[in-house]
Design brief:
Number of domains: 1
CATH architecture: 3-Layer(aba) Sandwich
Shape: globular
CATH superfamily: P-loop containing nucleotide triphosphate hydrolases
Number of strands: 5
Helix content: 55-70%
CATH topology: Rossmann fold
Number of helices: 8
Radius of gyration: 16 Å
CATH class: Alpha Beta
Bound molecules: adenosine-5'-diphosphate, magnesium ion
Distance between the termini: 14 Å
């Protein structure tokens, strides 16, 4: 039976997910709250291989193939990392999860949303996050924050990234209890404070 708390972090590349997860991890560590930081794709050994393909394969990839690769990564992640940690009473901080597939492969790649939802359900065995934080940011600003060589998804154009952003906001509107949206165009410290406030309310209920 699930005893931990499953928190996912969502938003475009460059919105600040990794920065905020690391700060939250430090905060939870200091409070003595058992937690792990994980991510998709690429948290398991199999996932590392899938991540290489997903982010760096340089020939055309069909939308369906892309979707299934993400879902394969997720199925492996849920079964061997997330579920055992939750059963163990751990707070799981996960960088991207089902809402990424819905936003990227659904809204941005324009695939059927209900199908993606069903596939997510199969890949996760129905495991939903207790809480999801979406960092909302202007697409151009997010891209400006990124440095180094862009991966396969980051190379997509502005239109793709705008659809992605709207996708996240649509999803958040449908599940206001689970999903909290934070404006990511703010200082790292201010955003961290908001994250701590939201997460603390959940942890108090544990
Ligand atoms: N609130 C912020 N304001 C300005 N720069 C930020 C902010 N949050 C993160 N950054 C910087 O933007 C870049 C992308 O942040 P990162 O946390 O890696 O985003 P993500 O994991 O969502 O791709 C990093 O260089 C990071 O230091
Ligand atoms: Mg990151």
């Amino acid at each position: 039976m699930k005893k931990g708390l499953f928190i996912t972090f969502e938003g475009a590349d460059g919105c600040g997910k990794t920065t905020q997860i690391e700060l939250l991890k430090k905060y939870l560590d200091e409070k003595g709250i058992k937690n792990i930081q994980t991510r998709e794709p690429g948290a398991t050994e199999l996932g590392v291989e899938l991540r290489k393909i997903l982010l760096h394969y340089d020939k055309p990839v069909s939308n369906v193939a892309e979707t299934y690769l993400y879902l394969a990564d997720r199925a492996q992640h849920v079964e061997f990392e997330i579920k055992p940690a939750l059963e163990n009473g751990t707070v799981v901080l996960c960088d991207r999860y089902t809402d990424s597939t819905l936003s990227y492969q659904g809204y941005a790649r324009k695939q059927n949303l209900e199908t993606i939802e069903k596939l997510n359900e199969i890949a996760t065995g129905g495991l939903k996050p207790d809480l999801t934080i979406v960092f909302d940011i202007d697409s151009l600003l997010a891209q400006k924050r990124l440095s180094g060589e862009k991966d396969r998804l980051e190379k997509e154009g502005l239109e793709f990234h705008k659809a992605l952003r709207l996708g996240y906001l649509e999803i958040a509107k449908k599940e206001t209890k689970r999903i909290k949206v934070i404006n990511a165009d703010d200082t790292i410290e201010n955003i961290h404070k908001k994250v701590v406030k939201i997460v603390s309310e959940f942890i108090d209920k544990l």
